[in-house]
């Protein structure tokens, strides 16, 4: 079986989202993927080619003003060259985001990623976790402590740097990296069988 290629296309304004990108990377590596981190605000032609040959593209951005960052939107618009030729059709996609508020309209950012993936004909991989930290016996250290289903969501205090990213949110992002890699392995086996 071939090794799945997972690329993490992300923007990080203050470093918090970069911590999550590294966590997705760690989870994907742990599950046996070849992984590439791609900062979309400085993307090169070689990195575009890496995205083109990837089995999975995981989108990541902070949530600013209820959506992905401006830098991520510039990248999303630049993917139209791939869209017109359906170059990313049938790849897997997933996403993660961070904001200072517990909600912060992060769901809208994840839905933006889902729509971007759908326009490319990609298959969305959700988080696959029940919500954590939603009962009197639960803990803020539970996986998926913020209760998102569409992707990995994190909350980081706006008066702390990247070191303040919550450990449960890092672990949730690692879970996402493992999940997309395992899903890519299943898709690869299915394609071979077909």
UniProtKB/TrEMBL annotation:
Q: Which domain of life is it from?
A: Bacteria
SUPFAM superfamilies tied to this protein: Flavoproteins
Matching Pfam families: FMN_red
**In what residue span(s) does the Flavodoxin-like domain sit?**
6-154
Gene3D superfamilies hit by this protein: 3.40.50.360
Can you name this protein? FMN reductase
Organism from which the protein derives: Streptomyces canarius
């Amino acid at each position: 079986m071939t090794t799945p290629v997972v690329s993490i296309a992300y923007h990080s304004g203050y470093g918090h989202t970069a911590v999550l990108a590294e966590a997705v990377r760690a989870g994907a590596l742990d599950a046996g993927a070849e992984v590439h981190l791609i900062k979309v605000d400085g993307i090169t032609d070689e990195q575009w080619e890496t995205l083109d040959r990837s089995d999975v593209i995981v989108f990541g951005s902070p949530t600013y003003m209820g959506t992905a960052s401006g830098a991520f939107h510039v990248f999303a618009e630049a993917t139209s060259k791939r869209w017109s030729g359906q170059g990313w059709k049938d790849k897997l996609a997933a996403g993660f985001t961070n904001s200072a508020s517990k909600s912060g309209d992060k769901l809208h950012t994840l839905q933006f990623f889902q729509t971007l993936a759908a326009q490319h004909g990609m298959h969305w991989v959700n988080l696959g976790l029940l919500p954590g930290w939603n009962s009197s016996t639960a803990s803020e250290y539970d996986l998926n402590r913020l209760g998102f289903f569409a992707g990995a969501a994190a909350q980081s205090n706006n008066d702390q740097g990247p070191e303040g990213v919550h450990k449960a949110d890092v672990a949730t992002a690692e879970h996402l990296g493992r999940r997309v890699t395992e899903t890519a392995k299943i898709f690869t086996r299915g394609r071979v069988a077909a």
